[in-house]
Amino acid sequence: xxxxxxxxxxxxxxxxxxxxxxxxxxxxxxxxxxxxxxxxxxxxxxxxxxxxxxxxxxxxxxxxxxxxxxxxxxxxxxxxxxxxxxxxxxxxxxxxxxxxxxxxxxxxxxxxxxxxxxxxxxxxxxxxxxxxxxxxxxxxxxxxxxxxxxxxxxxxxxxxxxxxxxxxxxxxxxxxxxxxxxxxxxxxxxxxxxxxxxxxxxxxxxxxxxxxxxxxxxxxxxxxxxxxxxxxxxxxxxxxxxxxxxxxxxxxxxxxxxxxxxxxxxxxxxxxxxxxxxxxxxxxxxxxxxxxxxxxxxxxxxxxxxxxxxxxxxxxxxxxxxxxxxxxxxxxxxxxxxxxxxxxxxxxxxxxxxxxxxxxxxxxxxxxxxxxxxxxxxxxxxxxxxxxxxxxxxxxxxxxxxxxxxxxxxxxxxxxxxxxxxxxxxxxxxxxxxxxxxxxxxxxxxxxxxxxxxxxxxxxxxxxxxxxxxxxxxxxxxxxxxxxxxxxxxxxxxxxxxxxxxxxxxxxxxxxxxxxxxxxxxxxxxxxxxxxxxxxxxxxxxxxxxxxxxxxxxxxxxxxxxxxxxxxxxxxxxxxxxxxxxxxxxxxxxxxxxxxxxxxxxxxxxxxxxxxxxxxxxxxxxxxxxxxxxxxxxxxxxxxxxxxxxxxxxxxxxxxxxxxxxxxxxxxxxxxxxxxxxxxxxxxxxxxxxxxxxxxxxxxxxxxxxxxxxxxxxxxxxxxxxxxxxxxxxxxxxxxxxxxxxxxxxxxxxxxxxxx
Length: 756
Prior knowledge:
Elements: H1 6-33, E1 40-42, E2 48-51, H2 52-64, E3 72-73, E4 76-77, H3 84-105, H4 114-129, E5 133-134, E6 139-141, H5 144-162, H6 178-196, H7 222-248, H8 275-279, H9 281-304, H10 322-353, H11 360-386, H12 394-397, E7 399-402, E8 405-407, H13 409-434, H14 440-455, H15 469-502, H16 508-529, H17 541-553, H18 555-572, H19 588-613, H20 615-621, H21 625-653, H22 657-700, H23 702-706, H24 708-711, H25 714-722, H26 724-748
Parallel strand pairs: 1-6
Antiparallel strand pairs: 1-2, 3-4, 5-6, 7-8
Helix pairs in contact: 1-16, 2-6, 3-4, 3-5, 3-6, 5-6, 7-17, 7-18, 9-10, 9-26, 10-11, 10-13, 10-15, 10-21, 11-13, 13-14, 14-15, 15-16, 15-21, 16-17, 18-19, 19-21, 19-22, 21-22, 22-25, 22-26
């Protein structure tokens, strides 16, 4: 075959080097830009009020009890509880206004005429925005009203977490000891101080003036406006450039050049399932089971937002509180998607290598056992952790407290070991193809993309419970954005390319070029674009400028996925030169799921992602339903649909035409049920509700849009009830049929088997 130009490979390598050089530099700056945690916090007279150990103990409480899966801090986390930093800041402003009005006018703030109220408010803004941290002595001085606020809010948060009326979605007396609540309040006080105290030498706070809080003068900084505008230039320029190249070189994309082999000459024709391929059936059963559990957890979470005190009158918070269910909802999503891709990789590798290495089935079974141990152990540990039943082992065996990275450190290490074992199994199966001149490049890309998954999981191990939260959030998004949205996406592209090439639908040259093209487009914008998660988490404006411009260009490859979807339609309908039939008799529904990936990638990651990635929009909406809207359409709509495409492809390959004819009806119903259910969630609640919450944030302040009083009132609350229809369609017409198809497929698989 004609080999690709080496510049495809060279361009990919150069982009990786440039992108990670910039991102690593931003990460190094995080350590110096992070809001300092002072050794001592004193009052104006020098008496100690707090110390570093108390603040860090409060961070431990915040993480151990999984409060990031209940509310948010600096905008990141879950959506039922308040944003703890914004709520503390708002109450701080109210208390300071009252203290200044009593000191200046001898009356409460609410009793002042407008002119005097503005004077008191001005005193509050000046007092809170002045940074009284002294780096030389490592001491922060609280103003008198900040000391009063700390005392007052300790009582209020004590009532919130330990009072007779439970916090929404949490059991009563959730945090058992008053000392833990006092430490937690100290942590909230530090987090709120960082949002309002101006960074030394700057006119904006450590969080770039986030959250929007007019009472303390927190409004978008000049950089937030500037980089929002300039990012539009890179979007338009990038879109124009890529459309030019696609118009000039019409062989880009899945159509490729020339005529590929027809299905009867594909690698699948006449192939006998190897023992290790047969062993992957257990992985797909786990995928379907975890998918069902994740969907049920999601339905319960949605109901918490319409009845936070009960589930149709039943108190479930004592057994399954909101923060635990949301932890499981996110962890199960990662587990079932990753399991599908792990199983799909193990299934495809012998096809690519055209051989079965000795002991491959044993290795596959050992890996399956490790997977089950990680899933069951981490889920149980998270329940024990948030119920404070692990003592000092909470971080290692329980709940780490970081959204998406909740599983204890021991389970993370075991997961990393499992991924390394998976990589070894992949290498053994792919090695024969890597030694073949004709197949080496595609097989090598398969292996390299698989290797990136364990390698780029390592940042999950780079922080501990006492690490500054700004640094934790930096490494956290190395995983969420780079690992999941970057290298998982790349591996998924390789999986799809390999599936198509093995089915004879595209040539090796076309498959290889598509992988390189996607790597260049995704990673070129996505690596540096990771920083759009860090606009308001203690980073400087350098990150905002770079992240905004590069993140805007992430829309470009996502736009091209609409072309992918159309290519999939044409591939699906391509007639066979021998029999005159088309591809519909084989892997039709795997193709349909890939078409759905193209649609949801454009809508969820492209349109909805770009909407909230602009700094000026993110400033007001982060932590609102618009974030959840993007998360559902991008996480499930893209990665979930990709995982299901892999599942359907592998299940179909394990069955004869006769058995598949009985199974495919469940797949058909599941496909339409999942897409209809997700669409109903979006149009009935996630998008319109997010717009309403954004509007309230603009009108009344971020704190107000996150309070339970807003969530449980008006049109927003009605939309949350209406969403039930989408949830039911998703579960009953989507998830359940996929589960039934999987169970039936594994029970009745009858494809020809190779000898052991």
